[in-house]
Design goal:
By secondary structure, the chain is α/β, with parallel strands linked by helices. Helix content is 31%, strand content 26%. It folds into three domains: 206 residues, FAD/NAD(P)-binding domain (3-Layer(bba) Sandwich); 110 residues, 3-Layer(bba) Sandwich (FAD/NAD(P)-binding domain); 105 residues, FAD/NAD-linked reductase, C-terminal dimerisation domain (Enolase-like, domain 1).
Length: 468
């Protein structure tokens, strides 16, 4: 029995408090709108609670442990370096709580009304919000749907005590002795390398011909090498077909090279993609157009087939990236406020927090040529950079791609330490229409990793100083 139902009028309703939803709510409030944010779980969504942030905290701890264990080359010897995994998990959770608490404060400071519950569309202007036995209705002028995604569950690998999604893999109470990872995309690779650094014996089963499909082979090669150095067994063109579970572990059956194999481990982690959370919103009843996979169709202003309803983040087409969701959230809020905003993905970066990191933005040289550009490119190696040498981090390179005639910067690909931070400069260059000369004439502090961007631009101009 549902009790206490009443109707409230709101200007802008945002459904979902992840990096798309809470950003959209704050921007709409900044633009003078009365905003209510509905969330059935935790503020911050998957990203802050069960994805981006906890995974990067775990990766950071694993890297720290590895650095302490292998610092002999720099003359630093450490005895009995060990991991207290319970404390690692406590620290990881403290990072999460600081950020989610911060989101709560930001919403409150911007006068966004936060409502706990699950939203179900009743009409094109009204939702029912259900929280346990309580129910209320919200009538809105505009709505932004930002409900995110969840891990894909394979029928042959139902999630349980020993079959994990990324969510459970981030919350293990102890370091496993062994783990099978199904899927060699960015989530699988990031978690595989983190646990491998802690000492877990990892087997990766990837269904395509290479890990990290979609990334250039040149970038992936260094990640492959480090996986091999860490003792990770990578099996490509492998199809996992089933699992047997016991109280103590799993046995995974897979086929590769026309032969059937089995591998035993403590756990199996399934990372084969994510699916949009659009199936329990009642969207069909209000004729919001979706494809057969549940992704909502939107235009260049994030508007759905229903004029006053917008959709952003993992529930629309494109890569499932937190920063893409935040960007789209701001665009949607600005459009609702009457501004002429529209999405432009040319400077959308993609990052893999692997070892070494991979970061890309804009076009590769091949993509640029396919679009009709006559290109020029410049590459600079970490091994020739003073700061990288001083950090004992010499694996990797920075490549900048540009239009040959005008010098207009079109893209960049970076593999190496801090690639995730270095890519921002090229993103800015693409966004502002900068040229190779603009980057080359920008004075970069020495010694820094950032100098490599300048050096790569100079190489593309035929003016390389520190490379031949």
């Amino acid at each position: 029995m549902v009790v206490g139902e009443f109707t409230t009028e709101v200007d802008v309703l945002v459904i979902g408090a992840g990096p798309g939803g809470y950003v959209a709510a704050i921007r709409a409030a900044q633009l003078g709108k009365n905003v209510t944010l509905v969330e059935k779980g935790e503020l911050g969504g998957v990203c802050l609670n069960r994805g981006c942030i906890p995974s990067k905290a775990l990766i950071s701890a694993a890297h720290q442990f590895e650095s302490m264990s292998h610092a002999g080359e720099m003359g630093i010897e450490a005895d009995n370096v060990r991991v207290d995994f319970a404390k690692v998990q406590q620290w990881k959770q403290s990072v999460v709580e600081k950020l989610t608490g911060g989101v709560g404060s930001l919403l409150k400071g911007n006068k966004v009304e936060v409502m706990k519950g699950e939203a179900l569309f009743v009409s094109e202007n009204e939702v029912k919000v259900i929280d346990g036995y309580d129910s209320s209705r919200l009538r809105f002028n505009h709505c932004i749907i930002a409900t995110g995604s969840r891990p894909v569950e394979l029928p042959a690998f139902p999630y349980g005590d020993r079959v994990l999604s990324s969510t459970e893999a981030l919350d293990l109470k102890e370091i496993p002795e062994s783990m099978v990872v199904i899927g060699g995309g960015y989530i699988g690779i990031e978690l595989s390398q983190a646990y491998a650094k802690f000492g877990t014996k990892i087997t990766i089963l990837e269904g395509t011909k290479s890990i990290l499909p979609g990334f250039d082979a040149r970038l992936i090669s260094l990640v492959k090498r480090n996986l091999k150095k860490a003792g990770v067994n990578v099996v490509t063109n492998a199809m996992a077909s089933g699992v047997e579970q016991t109280d103590n572990g799993v046995t995974v059956t897979y086929s590769a090279k026309d032969e059937e194999h089995q591998v035993r481990a403590d756990y199996v982690l399934v990372t084969v993609g994510r699916r949009p959370n659009t199936d329990e919103l009642g969207l069909e009843a209000i004729n919001v157009k979706m494809d057969d996979k549940g992704f909502i169709e939107v235009d260049h202003q994030c508007c759905t087939s229903v004029p006053n309803i917008y959709a952003i983040g993992d529930i629309v087409h494109g890569p499932a990236l937190a920063h893409k969701a935040s960007y789209e959230g701001k665009v949607a809020a600005e459009v609702i406020a009457g501004q002429p905003s529209a999405v432009d993905y040319r400077a959308m970066p993609a990052v893999v927090f692997s070892d070494p990191e991979i970061a890309t933005v804009g076009l590769t040289e091949k993509e640029a040529k396919d679009e009709g550009y006559e290109t020029t490119s410049g590459k600079f190696s970490y091994a020739a950079n003073g700061r990288a040498l001083a950090l004992n981090a010499t694996e990797g390179s920075v490549t900048v791609v540009a239009d040959k005639e005008s010098g207009l910067v079109l893209g960049a690909q970076i593999v190496g330490p801090e690639a995730s931070n270095l890519i921002a400069e090229i993103g800015l260059a693409i966004e502002m229409g900068a040229t190779l000369e603009d980057i080359a004439l920008t004075i970069h502090a020495h010694p820094t990793l950032g100098e490599m961007t300048m050096e790569a631009a100079e190489a593309a101009l035929g003016q390389a100083i520190h490379s031949l």
